[in-house]
Design goal:
- The complex is a heterodimer of chains A (327) and B (364).
- Chain A is of the alpha+beta class.
- Chain A contains nine helices and 13 strands.
- Helices cover 31% and strands 23% of the residues of chain A.
- In chain A, strands 8-10-7-11-9-12-13 form a seven-stranded mixed sheet. A four-stranded mixed sheet of chain A has the order 1-6-4-5.
- The mean pLDDT of chain A is 91.
- Chain B has helices spanning 12-26, 38-46, 72-82, 105-110, 122-130, 147-159, 174-183, 196-202, 208-212, 225-241, 260-269, 299-302, 318-322, 346-349, 354-362, and strands at 31-35, 57-61, 87-91, 114-117, 135-142, 165-171, 191-194, 218-220, 246-248, 270-277, 281-290.
- In chain B, helix 10 (225-241) links the parallel strand 8 and strand 9.
- In chain B, 55% of the residues are buried.
- Classes of the chains: A alpha+beta (327), B alpha/beta (364).
C-alpha cells in the first residue's frame, strides 16, 4: 500500500473509504484546515490509541478513539463539538478491516453527537503500527464559570463512580493472542458526555475524571495528590462484576488498577451527593453507579481503603503495567 | 494427618472471635506464625488482615515468593542469554522487572532483546515451532506448583523433536527451605501456614517432619481471607493443645496424597539438586536440575551457562526478610532507595514479595 504517500493514491483512499462514511461537510472540503463555528470558552484535548488487538469484545480501536477523546472533554465539564482523526495504518491492513473501523468511528461519533471534521492518513511499513494507530484531538464548549479541578475538593466531599470496574481491560486481554481464557466480559467503551452533563446539573461537582490507564487507583492517587488531601474508600461499595473479579483472580490482576473506557469518577459536595448518585443511577450509562468513598483532610496524597473484611490498606499508585503473578 | 480443626464458626466475625479467645487463653505475649506463599503474603496485605488480629499475634512472611529467592546470578545469566542474537526468551511476568547486577529483563527488552511474557510454559513450544530460525529459552522459575508444567514442556519438546527450545531451570522445593527455617535457633516461629497450591502437588506427607521433628503445627491454607483466619484459629488451637500436627484447611482442593502423577512427571524430567536461594545460600537437594536424558533441552548445558553463586553486596536485607528475621520496614533501604518503582531487591519488585506487599498496602 503506497496510499500514505500523499499523492493520487492517498487522495483515493480518503475519498473512497473515509469521506462517504464519515459524511461531514467540513471534512468533505478536504482543505488543509476545517472551518468550524467556535465558542467563547473552549476545552481542548488529544489522545493516541494503540490498543492491541484492534478488534475486541464490545468494541474496536475506532470506537475507542472517539469515546476516549469525547470522555476527556466530558469529564472536564465540556460539551464535545469536533474531533480530528489521524490514522497511521500498517501496510497490508485489510481494506475490509479499515472499513469496519471507519464505520465504527462514524457510529461512535453519532452516538456522542460530535463531528469528525479533519484528519490525516499515513501508511507505514508492514511490521509497524500493530495494524493501526489512531490519534484524536477534540474541542469542546465550556459554559462560563465551569472550572472543574481537584483543587475544588474539600474534606467531607463524596467520591462516586458511574459503574463497574475492569471490564475493558479483561475484554481486551481475553482477545489478545497467547492468553487463552474464555469470558463473556465485553468492553465498556461508550461516550459519557450525556451522563456528565446530567451529573453537572444535578449536583455540585468539584471534579471528574475517567479511570483509563492506571485504573481507579491511579486516578484517585492523582486527585489526592493534586488536592493535597486524602481519600478513604470502602471496598464493599466498589462495583466489580463477578466475571471480571474471577478473570482478575485467575490472571493475578487487580480491578482497582484495570483500565476502563466507559466510566467516570466524580467528586461532589456532601450536600448534593444523594442527587449525584440518583442522576447516575437513573441514566442508562450510569445505572450501576455507586458512592465509594470520602475525601478527608490530613495525609495529603494518600488513598486508603476499608477492606471487605474490615481491615485497612493503602491503595497505592500503580507502577508500570500490572504483572500477572507467577504461581 | 489429623482432621479439620476444631473451629465451628465460618463468618469473619466468628473466626476473629475464636482467634481472640484462643490467643487470650494461650496467655503468651507473642505468637509468631509464618506463611511461605507469595499469594498468602498478598492476600493478607490486601485484606488488611493484620489490623484485625490481636496485638502480639504476628504474621510473618517467609521465602514464599519464587522470584524473590531466585539468585542474582540466575537473573544475570538469564539477561545475558536473552541478549544474544537469535534467542527468544519466554518467562512469567514477575521476572521481567527483577534486578540483577546489570539491569532487568525489561530493560534488555527495551534494548531489543526478544523477551516475551507467557502465562503458560507451553506457549514456548508454540513459539519454537512457529519460528524454527529462533531458539526459545524458557525461564523455569517457581516452586512445586509450576514444575510439572515445565516438565511437560520438556517432554513435549522431546516427543515432537523440537530442538530449538530449551529451559533454564531454577525451580525450587519448599520443604527443604522449611527445614532450614525450623532449624534456625535465631528464628522463633510457632507455626506455619502452608502454601495451598504447592500442597495440591505435594499433599501432606512432606510436611510431617515439622510436627514430628520440630513440634511445629502447620495448616495447609486456602487463599481467601476467611481461609487464612480459619487456619490461624486452627494453629492457635494446636499450639495450645501441645499436640502439633499437619492439618489441611484447603480440603476443597488439596488431597492428602497430593498429585502423584504430577510428581512422577516432574521426576521423569528433573532430578533434585542443591540450589542457591537468595538469602539462604545453598540449600541441599532443594532445587531441580534437568536429567541427562533431556540435556538437549537444558539451557544451562546447551549454552554453557555459569550461574554465579555469590550474592552481591547491596545493603538490602532481602535475605533476612525472606527468612522472616526482619520485617520489610526494618530494612534501611525500604521506601527510600528501594521502592516498587525502583527496586534494589526482588522482594520489592515481585508482586508477591514481602516488601512490595508492605509498601503497597501497609505503609503508614
Amino acid at each position: 500500500m503506497s496510499h500514505g504517500g500523499g499523492g493520487k493514491l492517498a487522495r483515493e483512499l480518503v475519498v473512497r473509504e473515509l469521506l462517504p462514511v464519515l459524511a461531514d461537510e467540513a471534512l468533505a472540503e478536504l482543505g488543509d484546515s476545517a472551518f468550524v463555528e467556535g465558542a467563547e470558552h473552549l476545552a481542548f484535548t488529544t489522545d493516541s490509541f494503540v490498543v492491541k488487538p484492534i478488534f475486541f469484545p464490545g468494541g474496536d480501536i475506532g470506537r475507542l478513539a472517539v469515546c476516549g477523546t469525547v470522555n476527556d472533554l466530558a469529564v472536564a465539564g465540556a460539551q464535545p463539538l469536533y474531533l480530528s482523526l489521524s490514522m497511521i495504518l500498517e501496510e497490508g491492513l485489510l481494506v475490509e478491516n479499515l472499513r469496519r473501523i471507519v464505520r465504527s468511528v462514524k457510529a461512535a461519533a453519532q452516538e456522542a453527537g460530535v463531528r469528525v471534521v479533519c484528519g490525516d492518513t499515513k501508511v507505514v511499513e508492514h511490521g509497524s503500527a500493530d495494524g493501526m494507530y489512531l490519534t484524536t484531538s477534540g474541542i469542546g464548549k465550556l459554559s462560563a464559570g465551569t472550572r472543574l479541578s481537584p483543587r475544588n475538593m474539600r474534606p467531607g466531599d463524596v467520591v462516586l463512580v458511574s459503574g463497574t470496574l475492569g471490564d475493558h481491560s479483561i475484554a481486551v486481554l481475553s482477545a489478545r493472542e497467547g492468553i487463552e481464557f474464555r469470558t463473556d466480559v465485553t468492553s465498556d467503551v461508550q461516550p459519557l458526555n450525556d451522563l456528565a452533563q446530567k451529573l453537572l446539573s444535578a449536583a455540585e461537582v468539584r471534579c471528574m475524571r475517567d479511570p483509563t490507564r492506571g485504573g481507579l487507583a491511579g486516578l484517585l492517587n492523582e486527585l489526592a495528590e493534586s488536592a493535597a488531601l486524602s481519600i478513604q474508600l470502602d471496598e464493599k461499595c466498589i462495583p466489580v462484576t463477578d466475571a471480571v473479579r474471577g478473570a482478575c483472580d485467575v490472571l493475578g490482576l487487580d480491578p482497582m488498577y484495570a483500565a476502563n473506557e466507559g466510566k467516570l469518577v466524580a467528586v461532589v459536595s456532601p450536600e448534593t451527593a444523594d442527587s449525584a448518585l440518583q442522576a447516575l443511577k437513573t441514566h442508562p450509562r450510569g445505572h450501576r453507579g455507586a458512592t465509594i468513598g470520602r475525601v478527608e483532610k490530613g495525609h495529603p496524597g494518600r488513598v486508603t481503603m476499608r477492606t471487605a473484611l474490615g481491615g485497612r490498606r493503602i491503595v497505592d499508585m500503580p507502577v508500570g503495567e500490572q504483572l500477572p503473578r507467577i504461581c | 494427618m489429623s482432621g479439620n480443626g476444631g473451629t465451628r464458626s465460618v463468618s469473619v466475625e466468628g473466626l476473629l472471635e475464636d482467634i481472640r479467645t484462643r490467643f487470650r487463653e494461650l496467655g503468651r505475649k507473642v505468637v509468631r506464625l509464618m506463611e511461605v506463599c507469595g499469594t498468602h503474603t498478598m492476600s493478607i496485605a490486601r485484606a488488611g488482615l493484620r489490623d484485625l488480629l490481636p496485638e502480639g499475634l504476628k504474621l510473618t512472611s517467609g521465602p514464599g515468593c519464587p522470584v524473590c529467592v531466585t539468585s542474582t546470578g540466575y537473573i544475570d545469566a538469564a539477561i545475558d542469554l536473552a541478549s544474544r542474537p537469535g534467542i527468544t526468551t519466554t518467562t512469567f511476568g514477575d521476572m521481567i522487572r527483577v534486578p540483577g547486577t546489570k539491569g532487568t529483563l525489561e530493560a534488555a527488552k527495551a534494548q531489543g532483546a526478544d523477551v516475551r511474557v507467557v502465562y503458560s510454559p507451553m506457549k514456548s513450544l508454540e513459539i519454537a515451532q512457529a519460528r524454527p530460525e529462533r531458539t526459545v529459552v524458557f525461564l523455569g522459575v517457581g516452586f512445586e506448583t509450576t514444575a510439572p508444567a515445565t516438565a511437560t514442556l520438556i517432554e513435549c519438546a522431546a516427543e515432537s523433536r523440537t530442538t530449538n527450545l530449551a529451559v533454564l531451570p531454577a525451580h525450587k522445593l519448599i520443604p527443604p527451605a522449611l527445614r532450614v527455617i525450623a532449624s534456625d535457633p535465631g528464628l522463633r516461629v510457632d507455626g506455619f501456614l502452608l502454601p495451598g497450591h504447592v500442597s495440591v502437588i505435594l499433599g501432606t506427607a512432606p510436611y510431617e517432619f515439622l510436627a514430628t521433628e520440630f513440634s511445629l503445627p502447620c495448616v495447609i491454607t486456602g487463599f481467601e481471607p476467611q481461609d487464612i483466619l480459619e487456619a490461624i484459629s486452627m494453629l492457635l488451637d494446636r499450639i495450645s493443645s501441645g499436640k502439633p500436627e499437619v492439618q489441611n484447611q484447603y480440603r476443597k482442593v488439596v488431597r492428602p496424597e497430593g498429585n502423584p502423577e504430577a510428581r512422577r512427571r516432574v521426576m521423569e524430567v528433573f532430578r533434585t539438586a542443591d540450589a542457591s536461594w537468595r538469602g539462604f545460600g545453598v540449600i541441599p537437594q532443594s532445587g531441580l536440575a534437568v536429567r541427562d536424558e533431556y540435556a538437549q533441552w537444558d539451557a544451562a548445558r546447551r549454552f554453557a551457562i555459569r550461574v554465579a553463586p555469590e550474592e552481591p553486596e547491596t545493603g538490602c536485607l532481602c535475605g533476612d526478610v525472606l527468612k522472616g528475621k526482619v520485617h520489610p520496614r526494618e530494612c534501611p533501604l525500604f521506601g527510600g532507595r528501594c521502592t516498587p518503582a525502583s527496586a534494589v531487591g526482588p522482594c520489592m519488585v515481585s508482586s508477591e514479595g514481602a516488601c512490595a506487599a508492605s509498601f503497597r498496602f501497609e505503609r503508614r
